[in-house]
Design brief:
Elements: H1 17-55, H2 59-67, H3 69-83, H4 89-106, H5 113-141, H6 146-175, H7 179-199, H8 202-205, E1 218-219, H9 228-258, H10 263-277, H11 280-289, H12 292-312, H13 317-345, H14 352-381, H15 383-402, E2 412-413
Antiparallel strand pairs: 1-2
Length: about 425
């Protein structure tokens, strides 16, 4: 159904007890649907050595394969933002879940490098549609606490990052093939797509359109996407994409092939990383509570330090596990959450969907080459130099762009809103 850009979200009074409970249940199901995406993102790097042996991929090819889904996300981010100005966000999210789940299953039938690369990229198109819609839904529904709401989205990423390696390694061991966990995760996605249809109401998913309830609680922000803060945040999103997906794409391979970790130990370390990402709600709270520039500067500084230690510190399980946890806290738990939230805060309420699309496109455009980049650096200069460049040095460069942001031009909550949905 077409959705006018001036249509007000549904007439259900979400302040009543029963309606509010049902609304929160729908939001919880949306968040659970994103857990499956995170599980797959942690699974594929874990099974990459098996995939490499079967197909004979080189190290840079393997790195590209592990992060190429981000190319699909980059291509689909902006179009999804515009799509949501015409169609319901809930419908866009469901289509995304379907595409992601179907492409995940089809991957197991790949005959070689090219068709597997295409199917992995196609999962990114589905995830971009789902993620862009979810960011718009939650940042609009919880308009006064946008960073915390987006932190909840990334919290589910942490849950998936914990469960994915553990469940994936268990299924891999039980069935002896990397294809088994891929099929299992794809089928779970179809189940959650049906639950979204049953439990997520339009009165929840369409809040925040022009003329809707969000205008009662938030003021300010640019009236166009062509503004100083959005431009700088695009650069910061690209840097964050290189940093975070350099880690996600090839760190498990570094553990297994360079440090000689077993698949079980590698899965455990990546699950511990996922535990760190569970701090996303706290990271979002910090972004809502404290000034923008100090939050980002401190986050990038800590990321640079932890990134350096990951590839230069002790090579034991006891050392790598807490470092991976710290990386989960600072990279997805703070950088991803707050940069995404600041994209939405940079513009007025009716542009929330398009701003989410800009973030997804810029972040995942850089992420799409992150695995290849760190794989190329490792193959030519060694893992230490690769980590120093991609997980440390560019974090320090990012601080220069953070200092150029203009906090006074961002959207902000009204001091005394007439009502609140959250």
């Amino acid at each position: 159904m077409a959705l006018s850009g001036t249509q007000i979200a549904g007439n259900v009074d979400t302040r009543t007890g029963a309606a509010r409970t049902f609304a929160l249940l729908g939001i919880a199901i949306l968040l659970c649907s994103y857990v499956i995406n995170a599980m797959d993102r942690q699974l594929f790097p874990l099974i990459l050595p098996e995939v490499r042996r079967e197909y004979g991929f080189s190290l840079p090819e393997a790195g590209l394969m592990s992060t190429v889904f981000t190319l699909g996300m980059a291509l689909a981010g902006l179009p999804t933002g515009y799509l949501m100005s015409r169609y319901a966000r809930k419908s866009v999210a469901q289509i995304g879940i379907f595409l992601f789940s179907a492409a995940t299953i089809v991957t197991v039938f790949a005959a070689g490098f090219t068709d597997m690369l295409l199917t992995r990229a196609f999962t990114g198109i589905g995830e971009a549609m789902q993620l862009t819609a979810m960011l718009a839904i939650l940042s609009s529904y919880f308009a006064r606490h946008r960073a915390t709401a987006i932190g909840a989205v990334n919290f589910t990423f942490g849950v998936g990052a914990v469960l994915g390696p553990l469940l994936g390694a268990a299924i891999l061991s039980a069935y002896g093939t990397w294809r088994a966990p891929m099929i299992a995760f794809g089928l779970i996605g179809f189940v959650l797509m049906a639950l979204v249809q049953a439990f997520v109401r339009r009165s929840v998913s369409e809040v925040g359109l022009a003329g809707g309830m969000q205008r009662a609680t938030v003021i300010g922000g640019a009236k166009t996407l062509r503004n100083r803060n959005t431009f700088l945040l695009v650069i910061l999103s690209c840097i964050a994409g290189l940093v975070l997906y350099g880690f996600l794409g090839m760190y498990p391979t570094f553990l297994r092939e360079e440090l000689q970790f077993t698949p079980a130990d590698t899965g455990t370390v990546m699950s511990i990383f996922g535990l760190g990402a569970l701090a996303s709600i706290g990271g979002g709270f910090l972004g809502d509570r404290f000034p923008m520039r100090p939050v980002l500067v401190v986050s990038f500084l800590i990321a640079a330090l932890v990134g350096w230690l990951l590839f230069n510190g002790p090579a034991t399980f006891a050392a790598q596990a807490p470092l991976a946890f710290a990386w989960g806290v600072v990279a997805p738990g703070s950088l991803f959450v707050n940069i995404a939230a600041y994209h939405v805060k940079a513009v007025s309420g009716e542009l929330a969907g398009r701003a989410s699309g800009v973030f997804v496109t810029s972040f995942y455009t850089a992420a799409s080459i992150a695995g290849y980049m760190i794989g190329w650096l490792a193959a030519n200069f060694g893992w230490t130099i690769a980590g120093d460049v991609q997980l440390c040095a560019i974090c320090l460069v990012a601080i220069l762009f953070v200092l150029a942001l203009k906090p006074d031009q961002m959207a902000r909550p009204m001091a005394t809103p007439p009502f609140t949905l959250s």
